[in-house]
């Protein structure tokens, strides 16, 4: 998974572990998760928080081409209103962090002849 997407999820890790219903979310991720992944998450000795930790770990390790971040957001949105709120919070964090990264590439340059501030895009 893309690093910025990982960081957006990790920013809300404690809240996800506390509030997420991992089995309900997992049911919406059947296309992303292997049978082995699902069996590991379902293990009966796991309490809900441990299942959530395992699910998040598995999702964070998935290849970006599988779109794990987008599928997690969609799964959270489709589960219930509390999960939808978490999805929106994670998505907003990602958008904010991604925008901040782009903004950091813009720097001030010298004043122009008219005294206006010019900005240049750094590459």
UniProtKB/TrEMBL annotation:
Residue ranges spanning the membrane: these are none
The record, for Pfam families, names: CARD
Q: Name the GO terms of the biological process aspect.
A: regulation of apoptotic process
Instruction: Tell me the ranges covered by the CARD domain, including all copies.
Output: 1-80
- Record-linked InterPro entries: CARD, DEATH-like_dom_sf
Supply the name of the protein: CARD domain-containing protein
């Amino acid at each position: 998974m893309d690093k910025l997407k990982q960081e957006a999820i990790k920013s809300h890790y404690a809240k996800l572990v506390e509030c997420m219903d991992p089995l309900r979310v997992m049911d919406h991720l059947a296309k992303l998760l292997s049978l082995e992944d699902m069996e590991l998450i379902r293990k009966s000795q796991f309490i809900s928080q441990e299942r959530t930790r395992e699910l998040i770990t598995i999702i964070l390790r998935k290849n970006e081409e599988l779109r794990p971040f987008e599928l997690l957001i969609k799964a959270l949105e489709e589960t219930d209103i509390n999960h939808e709120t978490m999805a929106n919070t994670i998505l907003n964090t990602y958008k904010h962090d991604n925008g901040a990264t782009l903004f950091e590439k813009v720097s001030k340059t010298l004043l122009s002849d008219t005294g206006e501030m010019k900005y240049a895009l750094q590459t």
